[in-house]
Amino acid sequence: MSLSNVFNIAGSAMTAQSMRLNLVASNIANAESSTSSTGEPYRARHAVFTATPVKADVPQVAGVRVTAVEEDTSPFRMKYQPGHPLADENGYVKMSNVNLVEEMADMISASRSYQTNVEIVNTAKTLLQKTLQLGQ
Amino acid sequence: MLNKMSQQLDFLQRSLDLRAARAEVIAGNIANADTPGYKAVDFDFAKALQAQTSQQNGSLGMALTDSRHLNGRGSQAAGGELQYRSAVQRSIDGNSVDMDIERAAYTDNALKYQSTLTFLGRRISGLMDAIKGGQ
Predict the structure, then answer these.
(1) Which distant-in-sequence residues (6+ apart) come within 8 Å of A101 by Cβ?
(2) pLDDT of res. B71
(3) A92: which strand partners?
(4) Do the interacting molecules here have an ipTM over 0.90?
(5) How high is the pLDDT of residue B57?
(6) How far, CA to CA in Å, does A72 sit from each of A23, A75, A76, B11, B107?
(7) Predicted TM-score of the model (pTM)
(8) Residues contacting residue B79 through CB under 8 Å, at least 6 positions apart
(9) Under 8 Å between Cβ of A57 and A118
(10) How far is it, in rounded angstroms, from Cα B6 to Cα B19?
(11) Whose CA is closest to B97, among B42, B22, B29?
């Protein structure tokens, strides 16, 4: 049943995109975190998507999976705030390296992709229902 | 007689199989719209259907030793030869999925799947009419 595979593929994409959306939420929530459990400021996290074949005989037809969550290695943002308890001798505080503009763009991209996959599932569902009614 | 009936439905059935396979391929492309390095694939529907219908008595078929035997064929994996789509606008991460093209292709494919279903439904009701003799 080829059409049932559409559910697997689009479902995998929805899982991956919602995970990406979760990471965006985490990043935005921690955009102003200057310390964390590691003692360092919060580092932005990004999902790594990898295509995973659904059938062994046709490896090109693939769903998607989040295979890793990578931390952003870009330098921390330095904020001048001499009164802050974490300020260094020059009065700068190390802030997280979350780029809010990037995160917003990422969020829109993830939500659009999620919506598209929902539509794909809906269409496939309609097609299967019509197939079931064939000959009646 | 039965053979004739199955011939009537065979073409449309193969066509439906291929449409479903194509839906799967395009869904894969859309799912991987954000995967770095993923290349969009698709197959030529007309060519694939031609190949499927011309292979009707392919190597997997059962031998017909009597004219009353049913035409038993091994089922082949539906789907044509996958080819990479040439990207109109390349993206820097090596992904060649163009969402507009994929969405259009998916909708087009779904519509044609439904048309084939309608054709098949009509053919079935036509055969039913013939069986019932118009009663």
Answers:
(1) none
(2) 65
(3) A80
(4) no
(5) 46
(6) 12, 9, 10, 54, 38
(7) 0.83
(8) A2, A58, B18, B21, B22, B25, B43, B48
(9) no
(10) 20
(11) B29
Q: Which amino acid is at A105?
A: A
- Residues of chain B whose beta carbon is less than 8 angstroms from a beta carbon of chain A are 16-17, 20-21, 23-25, 27-28, 30-36, 38, 41, 77-79, 82, 99, 103, 106-107, 110, 113-114, 117, 120-121, 124-125
pLDDT value at position A70?
A: 94
The stretches in chain B having pLDDT less than 70 are 55-63, 71-78
For chain A, the average pLDDT equals 91
The 10s digit of each residue's pLDDT in A7-38 is 999 999 999 999 999 999 999 999 988 888 88
Residues of A with CB under 8 A from a CB of B: 1-3, 5-6, 9-10, 12-13, 16-17, 20, 49-51, 54, 57-58, 60-64, 109-110, 113, 116-117, 120, 123-124, 126-127, 130-131, 134-135
Q: How many CB atoms lie within 10 A of CB B103?
A: 16
